Amino acid sequence: MHLAAFMNAGAQGTIGWRHPDAADNFLSAEYYTHIARVLEAACFDMAFIPDALAMPRSLGGNFDPAVRWGSGTPRLDPLPALAIMAAVTRHLGLAATVSTGYHQPFTLARTFSTLDHLTHGRAAWNVVTSFQDAEAQNFGEDKLPPRDVRYAKAEEFMEATTRLWDSWADDALVMDKASGVFGHPERVRATDYKGEFFKVQGPLGVPRSPQGYPVIVQAGASPAGRDFASRWADVIFCSHESFESAQAFYADMKQRAAAHGRDPDQLKVIVAATTVIGATHDEAIAKHNAYAALVTPEAGL
Ligand SMILES: Cc1cc2nc3c(=O)[nH]c(=O)nc-3n(C[C@H](O)[C@H](O)[C@H](O)COP(=O)(O)O)c2cc1C
Fold first, then answer.
1. How far apart are alpha carbons 204 and 270 in whole angstroms?
2. Could you tell me the residue ranges of all domains in the chain?
3. What homologous superfamily is domain 4-300 in, according to CATH?
4. Distance between the two ends of the chain, CA-based, in angstroms?
5. Strands 199-200 and 193-194
6. How far is it, in rounded angstroms, from Cα 234 to Cα 169?
7. 239 CA from centroid of ligand 1 (Å)
8. Which pick of 65, 119, 229, 244 has the fewest CB atoms within 10 Å?
9. Under 8 Å between Cβ of 98 and 126
10. What's the 62 CA to ligand 1 centre distance in angstroms?
11. Does residue 22 line the site of ligand 1, with CB under 6 A?
12. Closest ligand 1 atom number to CA of residue 51
């Protein structure tokens, strides 16, 4: 069994900040180091931080509800939070969400390669294509491109990024103090990627990291998204309302991975579950009801 903890870089849940037991120090390093230690002690494989590049504006076309109720807000940058969590753990995987829509392959490849080195191979990247026009509007666009265009761009992003990660051979570094030779230039190659959306000369400025590539996480659900995920992902996240639909999704993703020439066993599918723990069933239900009573309808919307 693999366990990934879905945690925000901010308050937890729609109104998680409001719970009487909730810590209010989510703008401090101690909050993240505490969660990291708890997850590692509980044998979780991975801490996963979602992200979006905008304040939510889906209700009423403005950000007032997000600020007033603290729903989807704040969102700290996942990567520094994970780097701090890495420093107090040894085994926990560290997954950051970064959009292919509003970054460049070179900066992304460099950041994740650095995190993978500094954590001895524990970095993971949740590849998303963004989902709100509000995100597009922070990067010079009026609207998100249509889904097919977003996934075509993501496809190029992955091609360019993996080429950057492959630009240094495993044995490119020599560091021979006697001769003064630091590395073998013939074991480092330019990237020379030219696509419709991205052009990258390369090579990367960071030698190949322990995992080579970070663990690739994806959560595509549409046909385009499933195709992308089954081609690139090591881990697929999904959310299902019934056991049957989860099973059908699992079978579909394994079959798609095989169609891409991959070993389906290499693809792990993790389904979302929200758990409420109590010593008895009644205690758990009472906890759940107390939590639900804190949700203002506007925050939920
Ligand atoms: C568990 C889970 C976590 C997700 N986290 C994010 C996220 O942090 N940021 C984001 O932009 N999208 C996130 N998504 C959305 C997916 O990337 C994807 O866009 C969505 O499942 C719809 O699929 P589609 O892109 O094929 O239409 C998440 C989806 C799931 C199921």
1. 32
2. 4-300
3. Luciferase-like domain (3.20.20.30)
4. 34
5. antiparallel
6. 22
7. 10
8. 244
9. yes
10. 22
11. no
12. 8
Count of residues making up the chain: 301
Q: In terms of Cα–Cα distance, which of 12, 1, 16, 53 is closest to 35?
A: 12
- Cβ of residue 51 lying under 6 Å from some atom of ligand 1: yes
Single pTM value for the model: 0.96
Q: Distance, CA 255 to ligand 1 centroid (Å)?
A: 21
Atom 11 (ligand 1) nearest CA: 130
State pLDDT tens for residues 175-217: 999 999 999 999 999 999 999 999 999 999 999 999 999 999 9
40-56: per-residue pLDDT in tens?
Answer: 999 999 999 999 999 98
Pocket mutation for ligand 1, best pick of 131, 227, 238, 250 (most atoms within 8 Å of C-beta): 131
Give yes or no for a cis peptide into 78 (omega within 30° of 0): no
